[in-house]
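In this section we walk through a basic example: taking a raw amino acid sequence and producing a predicted 3D structure, encoded as discrete structure tokens. The instruction is simple. Fold the sequence below.
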Amino acid sequence: MSYRSGGSCPLETKFCSFDGALALTEGAAIAGYASLFGAADQGGDVVQAGAYSVSLRRLATAGSGVKMLWQHDPTKPIGVWDEVREDARGLYVKGRLLLDVQAGREAHVLMEAGAIDGLSIGYRTVRAEKTAGGRRLLHEIELWEVSLVTFPMLPEARVGADSVDLDPDLARTLAETFREARQMLA
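The resulting token sequence is shown next.
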């Protein structure tokens, strides 16, 4: 998990892609799960069922929506999420890449090639608790954005039904290596 300063409350991000559940269809349309309930990520966080409900209702009431970004970069919106909802499995998203935007075209090409296969949520924790085992159970989340990303936090998740299964231990090692490299460069 990474943190970004955003005034008084940090933006937290959670990376995941899901076992063929995210699909690029009909040109630039995409759909899949941005979060799975009850699944521990590499940072030890577990999103609980219902964690997004208050935030999604608030956004709907305000006539606002969850942003679609490229790699959590707020200067690179790449599309729109037409549908963002909770179901029994997790946070389902369905939207469209905007191909008139350069980063949207790039994301489209990379997804078609299988080079990008991850989703990541940008959020602020509203209510959470620590377990005796050190996990953080996220009970309420203020959802800000869902990004397409290169390295997801849930390594066992994949984009597209035809994707090659990556060994979870290798994926964790790669994610940790890139995390350390980012820290060294910062």
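Looking at the output, two observations stand out. Strands lie at 2-4, 11-16, 23-25, 29-36, 45-47, 67-70, 73-86, 90-97, 118-130, 136-149. The longest strand covers residues 73-86. In the next section we compare this with other chains.
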